[in-house]
Amino acid sequence: MSPTSLRSDQWFARHDEVGLRHRSVLSTMGFDPQSVAGRPIIGICNPASDLNNCEIGFRELAEVIKRGVTAAGGIPLQFPTMTLGGELLKPSDLLYRNLVSMDIEETVRSYPIDGMILLCSCDKTTPAQLMAAASCDIPALQLSAGPKAVGHWRGQPISSGTDVWKYWDDYRAGKLADRDWHQLEHCISCSYGACNEMGTSSTMTALSEAIGMMPTGTCSIPANDSRRRTAAEAAGRRIVEMVGEDLRPSRILTREALENAIRTLCAIGGSTNAVIHLIAIAGRRGIVLPLSLFDQISQTTPMIVNLKPSGKYLMDDFHRAGGLPAVLEEIADLLLLDCMTVSGTTLGENIESADCYDRDVIRQKCNPVFPSGALVTLAGNLTPDGAVLKSSAATPQLLSHTGPAVVFDSYEDMLQRIDSDDLEVTPESVLVMRNTGPKGVPGMPEWGTIPIPKKLLARGVRDMVRISDARTSGTSYGTVILHAAPEAVVGGPLAVVENGDLICLDAAKRTLNLLISDDEIASRLSQWSPTPSPHLRGYLRLFVDHVLQAHEGCDLDFLRPASEDAIRFVEPVVGRS
Fold first, then answer.
1. Which domain holds residue 177?
2. Going by DSSP bridges, is the β-strand pair 140-144/151-153 parallel, antiparallel, or unpaired?
3. Which of 54, 97, 368, 409 has the smallest CB count inside 10 Å?
4. Is residue 461 part of a domain?
5. Does some domain include residue 534?
6. d(C-alpha 12, C-alpha 38), whole Å
7. Nearest-angstrom CA–CA distance, 458 and 503
8. Residue 421 half-sphere exposure toward CB, CA atoms < 13 A
9. What is residue 386's three-state secondary structure?
10. According to the model, what pLDDT value does residue 69 have?
């Protein structure tokens, strides 16, 4: 498509009965059929649903966006997708990330859409949309719902995730009464919008902005702030301009932009989930991001954002301190500044006038919250294809630790035994949970932060080394090793760990090893056999048969192009239906 030729012309600019029928469809929505041809059709991808409180605000924002699109000469048409609510969707929103990306791609393929605005908020919505944009490669930009309002409990601000986990441990340890616990329910979701700390949602919208797919300075605007509505109208105008400029994701989602995103992930102390998502987004453009690259960039990037779960502030504080532009300006010498963004200007141009207004929330590089290595990738005989640890949220003393394994064969097994008085566990133990990976549940739920056993909580223990092939919430904290690959259900070494086996974590050396011989591991694996999946049909069957491992982004294998030719988006034949 050139700036003078629209994709939608195949539907509306033709002089036959097919064109007449297509133009007539738009007349039912109030558009003059004779004024349709030549005006860009802008799809507004809106996941708003009563099932997802994070994205309810899009019902209002979509109307504001339409106003901007119309003012710029475009025709706004809204379409829905499955909502990926991180709270209510079980067993895992990651399970359906790939499905939503397919939903968007096939909507774009099949309908006359020249450009699209992608409305995102909850954890997996943002990467699902970016994966789809990478595959469709029509002009696209993202706009987030923003973080929810901050609640207060006992006179103190409370986050919607990190503080809940802390108080849950206090409740299990008998330090909170039922009355206190029920009062807490009213304080953690005080408005619509995303989690209000640097969890996965805020991490991914920040990374979308860093990549260049979200307008500069918008990722952290609070959900109920009028500036978000102003940004929505501006986004509506801008996407029409992008169609005229033929500014596509392929010019934005480059390897250099993705490396900027990894750098940003480390600087903000972002969620470990972002590792999986960035690998998946890159994979849609045929770009490989090995785990070693994440570690390499992490070791040269100071963590300068002082937000929970790795710090003390919340997203409201982050925005008033200058937001992501202030972060990127502070680490500008570490970034590739020539990368194109949805604004039509480079990343460097977008941040050159950025200022920071609170140096405790967004630190200078010379005074970081965490010097470098906030994110660590591990390898060894227990995880040959890698694992991930957020060292900035871990207990420093546990980053070099050897202890005996306490093994749980499933999430259900862990829940049944974790608080038993008969559980043979000490503070030095390493808690291991398996069969919770991409294929194992399926969908790799956020179960990796295994609870501290109740009898240890009573002794004041608040952290232990924990290992699984699952993920964890970006709002969680602790010495939690995640994404162990290969996962247990496909025969990864995690499958044959036995109670009492010594496990050695050495974060400084990036190693995670089971202290038995390679011959013993091989012998155990030779006697191991997989449990057949109970899912015999539907999307879950498709997922189990085709999902890639964590270090490959957990995309479906057939959605990841194997060649340059496979990246090409195949247009439909437009004729009679």
1. 152-184
2. unpaired
3. 409
4. yes
5. no
6. 8
7. 25
8. 0
9. strand
10. 98
Q: How far is residue 439 from each of residues 275, 498, 512, measured CA to CA in Å?
A: 18, 22, 22
Q: Are 133 and 214 in contact (CB under 8 A)?
A: no
User: Rounded mean pLDDT of 1-5?
Assistant: 54
Q: CB 463: neighbour CB atoms within 10 A?
A: 17
Identify each DSSP E strand in 81-224 by its residue range.
115-120, 140-144, 151-153, 156-158
Q: Are residues 232 and 245 in the same domain?
A: yes
Instruction: Please give the backbone phi and psi of residue 561, each rounded to the nearest 5 degrees, phi first.
Output: -65, 140
The answer to whether 55 touches 88, Cβ cutoff 8 Å, is: no
Whether the Cβ atoms of residue 122 and residue 55 lie closer than 8 Å to each other: yes
Predicted model pTM: 0.96
The secondary structure of residue 49, as a DSSP letter, is B
Percent of the chain with pLDDT over 90: 81
Is residue 31 one of the residues assigned to a domain?
no
Q: What is the DSSP letter of 498?
A: -
* Domain CATH code at residue 515: 3.50.30.80
Residues 471 and 386 in one domain: yes
**Token duo for residue 553:** 């982004």
Is the residue at 299 inside a domain?
A: yes
Q: Can you read off the two tokens belonging to residue 518?
A: 């390679």
Last residue in a domain, options 489, 506, 526: 526
Closest CA to 127 of 271, 243, 241: 271
Where b means 16+ CB within 10 Å and e means fewer, 496-515 reads: bbeeebebbbebeebebbbe
* DSSP assignment of 261-324: HHHHHHHHT--THHHHHHHHHHHHTT----HHHHHHHHTT--B-B-BTTTSSB-HHHHHHTTHH
- Alpha-carbon separation of residue 92 from 80, 334, 441, 490, 509 (angstroms): 20, 35, 9, 19, 32
Residue 192: its pLDDT value, please? 87
Nearest to 23 by CA among 146, 145, 112: 112
* Element holding 165 (H helix, E strand): helix 162-172
Looking at residue 398, the DSSP 8-state letter turns out to be G
Three-state DSSP state, 215 = coil
Looking at the structure of the chain, the number of domains it has is 3
How large is the average pLDDT for residues 65-76? 97
d(C-alpha 37, C-alpha 73), whole Å: 12
- Please tell me whether residues 164 and 83 are part of one structural domain: no
Q: Assess contact for 262 and 255: CB atoms under 8 A.
A: no
pLDDT value for 238 = 98
Question: In CATH, what number is assigned to the domain containing residue 65?
Answer: 3.40.50.2300
* Residue 385 shares a structural domain with residue 470: yes
Are residues 386 and 308 located together in one domain of the fold? no
61-75, 179-193, 287-301, 366-380: lowest mean pLDDT where?
179-193
Rounded to whole angstroms, the Cα distance separating 178 from 171 reads 8
Contacts of 179 (CB under 8 A, 6+ apart): none
Dihedral angle, C-alpha 195, 200, 206, 210, nearest 10 °: -170
